[in-house]
Design brief:
With 75 residues, the chain is mainly α. The chain has helices spanning 5-33, 37-43, 49-58, 62-73. The mean pLDDT is 86.
Length: 75
């Protein structure tokens, strides 16, 4: 029995499902941290998506940075 193309697709479904979860979570984190769509698109590439997601989580939120900039203007 020869393998056909559907075998490969079925075997990659768990990886695709995990990547989609990382991409959705990464989107909301990137939006909260003020990361642009270009950097987000590069960051969810399957080989390094987990590393970028951890890096984005460690960044300071954009609203905190905006409030800090506003406080520095008042000086």
């Amino acid at each position: 029995m020869e393998p056909d193309g559907t075998d490969v697709i079925v075997q990659l479904l768990p990886l695709l499902f995990a990547w989609m979860i990382v991409a959705v979570v990464g989107y909301f984190i990137a939006r909260r941290k003020g990361i642009g769509m270009g950097r987000f698109a590069l960051g969810i590439f399957p080989l390094w998506a987990g590393v970028f997601l951890l890096w984005w989580v460690s960044l300071t939120d954009k609203d905190v940075l905006d409030r800090l900039a506003e406080l520095e203007k008042r000086r």
